[in-house]
Structures are given as structure tokens and as C-alpha cells.
Amino acid sequence: MRKLLLISSNTIHTYKYLQLVETYFDEVLLITNEKSTVYDFPTVELSFNLKIKNIFSTVKAIKKHINQFQPTIIHIHQANSYAFYGLLASRKVKIPTVLTAWGSDVLVIPKSNFLLKKIVQFNLRTADYLTSDSNFMAAEMKKLAPSIKEILISNFGIDVTPLACEKENIIYSNRLHKKLYRVDKIIEAFALFNANSETNDWRLVIAASGTGTEKLKNKAKSLGLANNVDFVGWIQKEENEQWYSKAKIWVSIPESDATSISLLEAMACGCIPVVSDLPANCEWIQSGVNGIIVEDLQSDFISKALKLNHKVAIEINKQRIEKDGTKEANRTKFLQLYQTIVKV
Question: Which of 137, 158, 181, 171 is CA-nearest to residue 264?
């Protein structure tokens, strides 16, 4: 009997991963910080805050559930406190551990302070198997823990269904409204783009929400874009797919990022991606060929997307997604790893 113990935070990414691999296992148990109100997996709730008391209480509780559940594999997502507590709890049991890094846990947290860096390094050195969604992040993992020999490169795959509809003069952005994602720079670039447009019939559609939403709305108004920028809020999967399918251009320019699932979804739906100059993005986008890599945030970087051969770019992106971006392709990669571990 194959059993998976997954330790991860209560986010949509966790449940997408469980849905990706659950059929391989006879039983699955999730240990997380909060039970989902949407997804129905057997769940244990624990505190994963970095506190002295949790080093004892959370680790003790995880040990108890390992002993009771007797998993075949322990898979931990995020090389932060989830991995720290999970790996401390599993150190003296002979159960293989897999650690999947998500992005900020490797790219941002180690730079915060010395202690957090040491925790991440401990996690990377202690796990038996490691996975990353990009070659760039894998390289950063090896910098933090040079003893690492092998890292599986795989993402969670996309679950998007492009609609059969005509593309419209729409630029779509659906990242969170936080400083990290620089949505304000997208609005500023759109103002330049709109001023240079001969037709003035383009719309910037901004989905999602966050602490900066009101400031972004005020910026759009102050730039005279009230009639050209639509804030559609936090939307469901079906509406998200509609905007991808209608939009000619998709823009995302965060300061830091690993492989973005939103980027893969946009590529699958025939959008021309306009993305920040980050190593993970450059693994998917060749600027001027199948998208645009933004080098100057103060420029009208959106206009550059119109100069591409859209038919060629869309076909390149479609083929790349079929090879490395679908759920099927990535399910195969993770299951092959599991099969190597359990030798079944």
C-alpha cells in the first residue's frame, strides 16, 4: 500500500499538486496550517509559525502522525518552516523525504536574515530528494547547499481550457496587488501605450486583488485611464480563462519569481507574454520571438509585443506548453520520481 504524507500550506497550489498525484497513492494525508473549505482531503491542522514553542509542539505532533499514518513517502512543499518542522520530525524514521521549493522560500527568505538562511540550508541538505520548477531556482538551491547532487525540474502543470473566441484589443494582468508584482508599472506603461495608440480602443484588464488595489485604482484615474482600465477583482477559474482567451497580450513584471503558472496559462491561451527580466521567465520566453522580456520599466514596453509575428509566437508557445507545461507532462515527472523512490 502506497501512502503519501504531504506537508504544505493551505493554498491553491497545494491542492493542485495533490490532485496531480493522488491517484498514485492508496492513501493521502495532508498536514497544513488550516483546513481548506473547498478541497476535501484528510487533513491535520498545525501551527507552522517560526516560534520556539512550535519547535517542540509542532514537531512532536508531526512525529505522532508519521508513526500513526506510516507513510511510504513524506513530501514537503516550501523550504521554510514547513520543511524545517517536517524534516526535524522525520529525521529518525526511515521514510524517504521529498522537498519541493516554491520560489520565495529559496529566492527571498535566505536574504532576509542569517537565521532564516541557515534554516533553508538545513532543509535543502536534509531532504532526500529535491524538486524545483526552474533551472534558475535549482541553481540557487545548489548555491545555498553545494552538496546537492540532483534536483528534479518540474512544475505542477496548468489546468486551463482556452475558449474558441476572437482575440480582442485587451491587455490582461492577473497577479496579486502587492509591491512585489509592480502592477503600478504596468499601469504606467499602459498610459504610454495608450497615448501612442492610433485607435485608443485598447483595454487593460486587471484581475486579482491585494493591499495595493485602491492605490492602483487611484493611479489609473490620475493618469486619465478611467475608461480604459478595468479592475475585475478576484475571479474564478472560468472567468480567468475567458480573459486569457480574449486578450492579445498578458503582462506580469514581478521583482522576483520562479516559474509562474499564470505565464504558462497565458501561453496556452494564445496571449503574447510580456514579462520581467528574470531567469525563470527567460527559460520560457525568448524576447522578440515568443514574447517580450522587459528591460526598461519606464518605457512603453507593451508596444513591443505588437511587433512580434503573433502566429509564430502562439505556435511556439503552444508546443512548449505541450512538452513541459501540461498536467500530464508534469504528473509523469513526479510519478517517475516516486517510482524511483519506492521502486514500484
Answer: 158
Q: What is the dihedral of CA 308, 314, 320, 325, to 10 degrees?
A: 120
- Fill in the amino acid letter for 46: L
Indicate if the pLDDT at residue 343 is higher than 90. Answer: no
Q: What is the dihedral of CA 172, 15, 20, 31, to 10 degrees?
A: 150
Contact assessment for residue 316 and residue 141, using Cβ atoms and an 8 Å cutoff: no
Burial of 280 from C-beta contacts in 10 A (0-12 / 13-18 / 19+): buried
**Quick one: average pLDDT of 204-223?**
97
Confidence of residue 344 (pLDDT cuts 50, 70, 90): low
pLDDT tens for 103-139 read 889 988 999 999 999 999 999 999 999 999 999 999 9
Q: What is the pTM of this model?
A: 0.81
Cell numbers placing 338: 516516486
Find the radius of gyration of the CA atoms of the chain.
21
Q: Is 145 within 8 Å of 308 (Cβ atoms)?
A: no
Strands in the chain per DSSP E: 3-7, 27-32, 43-45, 73-77, 97-100, 129-132, 152-153, 168-173, 203-207, 229-233, 247-252, 272-276, 292-294
337-344: long-range pairs with CB below 8 Å, 24+: 337/98, 337/129, 337/131, 337/152, 338/2, 338/21, 338/24, 338/73, 341/73, 341/96, 341/98, 341/128, 341/129, 342/2, 342/72, 342/73, 342/96, 344/2
pLDDT in tens, 68-83: 999 999 999 999 999 9
Residue showing cell 499602459: 190
Question: Which strands form 292-294's sheet, in the order they lie side by side?
Answer: 229-233, 203-207, 168-173, 247-252, 272-276, 292-294
Q: For residue 135, what are the contacts with CB-CB under 8 A and spacing of at least 6?
A: 153, 279, 283
Higher confidence at residue 91 or residue 198?
91
Longest dimension (CA), the chain: 68
